[in-house]
Amino acid sequence: MQKIFYGAPGTGKSFTIDEEIKNNSVSDERVFRTTFHPEYSYSDFIGQLLPTVKKNTGDADSTITYEFNKGIFTRALEKAYEDTSKEVYLILEEMSRGNCAAIFGDVFQLLDRENAGLDKGYSRYFINNEMLSKDIIALKDDKVKLPANLSIYGTVNTSDQNVFTMDTAFKRRFDWEYVSTRPVPVSK
Fold first, then answer.
1. Closest by alpha carbon to 97, among 47, 43, 44, 155?
2. Burial class for 18, CB neighbours closer than 10 Å (0-12, 13-18, 19+)
3. Distance CA 140, CA 135 (A)
4. pLDDT (tens digit, 9 = 90+) per residue, 71-123?
5. Are strands 175-178 and 2-7 parallel, antiparallel or unpaired?
């Protein structure tokens, strides 16, 4: 499932997502949330190689190595593959505040999902990405697909000014649900 909730600020877009997660009894360890902003990048979302200083055992010298620091997408993907019978949610707040095409990069290809058959809900196409696949035991090589139990939900504030626009190719890979400004009656 890939869905974007859109509307004016304060209408309950994030609240609607939280209610669905609560109604599906999904624990916090299976919910990954981030907020896009103009400086948010592919490296933040997917991950990046960062230098790490390690002290050598038994002496005063240190060694610098480069390790892959996983982004929120990679952590959510790993959690989804841990147990594909349990739902995992990746929540992307304020999607229009970041450059979605640059943030998603090659992962964009994974957003096309199968609608029927044995692979229903899985990505229709794969990407080759060794950094994403290396810690996921369920993947036999570097071919990465989204599993059916990984839902990506986003919010878009339609009143924002000076934000990034999402192209049609990106938009059509998500279901869109308008969150109205009309108050919801409270039952007594």
1. 155
2. middle
3. 10
4. 999 999 999 998 999 999 999 999 888 888 899 998 998 999 998 888 888 98
5. parallel
Helix (H), strand (E), coil (C) string for the chain: CEEEEEECCCCCHHHHHHHHHHHCCCCHHHEEEEECCCCCCHHHHCEEEEEEEEECCCCCCEEEEEEEEECHHHHHHHHHHHCCCCCEEEEEECHHHCCHHHHHHHHHHHHCECCCCCCCCCECCCEECHHHHCCCCCCCCCEECCCCCEEEEEEEECCCCCCCCCCHHHHCCCEEEECCCCCCCCCC
- Tell me if 104 sits within 8 A of 169, measured CB to CB: no
Type of residue numbered 54: K
Distance between CA atoms of 39 and 180, rounded to whole angstroms? 29
At 107, which amino acid appears? V
Return the structure tokens found at 136: 């996921």
Q: What is the pLDDT of residues 137-174, one digit of tens each?
A: 788 888 889 999 999 999 998 877 667 777 888 888 88
Distance CA 5, CA 80 (A): 22
